[in-house]
Specification:
This protein is of the alpha/beta class. It has helices at 3-14, 47-50, 53-58, 60-76, 81-91, 106-110, 136-141, 172-181, 229-239, and strands at residues 17-21, 95-100, 115-117, 120-127, 133-135, 158-162, 184-188, 206-211, 223-226. The chain is elongated, with a radius of gyration of 18 Å. Bound molecules: nicotinamide-adenine-dinucleotide.
Length: 240
């Protein structure tokens, strides 16, 4: 039996199950991931300077300038065949939840409803003093008049509602609960090198990994399929 037929068999036994996605599910929408050789963002920026709590505290104006530049193309992106297939799998009762490491909102745009964004999103910013939230677009509209957007309530600096390196991902315990309650975890488009997201694998029953490149966790998986997330997920939905 080939891997795809084996996977379809596993789906029939385990549905509804949980999916964990990473940046690789969105590269076919034109959003670069972190670690792909040649195209990943790590080829161009130092994440500790631009995407960490430390980098934000060290130079908040630079952090916000970069954040604004990065956000524009992400907001313009559309869901690809992979996001659409996952939404169809949820609608068909195969997938219960999508846990995503992505901040791009493309699972919602594709029609998925049970989405847990463990690394946050681009919809809001929050005040670092009083925790008041505001629309991220309105916060960014304060630039470049100000170097750093300010809270309309108390005037303190705002920060985006994304989980930066150095933050505690508050949704992680809920994600672990979902994984532990599911008979199968299917990972799509993640190098599985970011913690604690990769620790979710320890709560998994059966494990499937769909990724273009090998991951350090492949040896833990029951089925590994290498290739394009969009093509593989679309093929899967057509076989069900
Ligand atoms: P990563 O960059 O570490 O790994 C991405 C993996 O996806 C790679 O192993 C690569 O082989 C694979 N991949 C790339 N294109 C693919 C495709 N078309 N089909 C199948 N696989 C493909 O990303 P990560 O593991 O998600 O960790 C990086 C962190 O950065 C996460 O927190 C992530 O959310 C964040 N990030 C998010 C976005 C986004 O919101 N779209 C973009 C970049 C980084």
């Amino acid at each position: 039996m080939d891997e795809m037929s084996e996977l379809v068999g596993l789906f029939r036994e385990a549905a509804p199950f949980v999916v964990l996605t990473g940046a690789g599910v969105s590269t076919e929408s034109g959003i670069p991931d972190f670690r792909s050789p040649g195209t990943g963002l790590y080829n161009f920026i130092d994440p500790m300077e631009y995407l960490s709590v430390w980098g934000m505290q060290k130079n908040a104006p630079r952090f916000w300038k970069h954040f604004k530049e990065m956000r524009g193309p992400i907001l313009d992106a559309n869901p690809n065949a992979g996001h659409l297939a996952l939404a169809r799998l949820e609608e068909g009762g195969w997938v219960s939840h999508v846990i995503t490491q992505n901040i791009d909102g493309l699972h919602y745009k594709a029609g998925s409803r049970n989405v847990l964004e463990i690394h946050g999103h681009l919809r809001t910013a929050r005040c670092m003093a009083c925790e008041e939230r505001m629309d991220l677009t309105e916060a960014l509209d304060q630039l470049p008049e100000r170097d750093v957007p300010q809270c309309p309530e108390c005037g303190a600096d705002l920060r985006p509602d994304v989980v930066l390196f150095g933050d505690v991902p508050e949704e992680y315990p809920r994600a672990m609960e979902l994984v532990e309650a599911s008979p199968l975890l299917m990972v799509v488009g993640s190098s599985l090198s970011v913690s604690p997201a990769n620790m979710l694998l320890h709560g998994a029953g059966k494990l499937v990994i769909i990724n273009r490149d090998p991951t350090a966790s492949d040896r833990l998986a029951d089925i590994v399929i290498q290739g394009s997330a969009g093509e593989i997920l679309q093929d899967l939905t057509e076989r069900l």
